[in-house]
User: Fold this.
Amino acid sequence: MCVGCKLSVADLALDPMAQHVTRAGKRINLTAKEFQLLATLMRRKGQVLSKTALAELVWGIHFDCDLNVVEAAIKRLRSKIDEDYPDKLLHTVRGMGYVLERREGGTV
Assistant:
């Protein structure tokens, strides 16, 4: 996998080298952790990632502690990348985790 390669899911694009994200051509400002979380999800697009896996990959937390930090970060990220767009890309898979993908119908 190319570390510096641009990533995309539908009209969402992430450029790791330039450290910027766009959706439908519009720039989206993210914090460093939000950027890292989105990059992690985009590198594994279509793959369901548990809260524990995200905590390990993004925050370096290697135990089941308070995973509310993951939930809060997902909520903030979702508000930035999905809120203003009809096609939702960041989905919750009940009891399993989160997945970044384009679904037919564009619903959550």
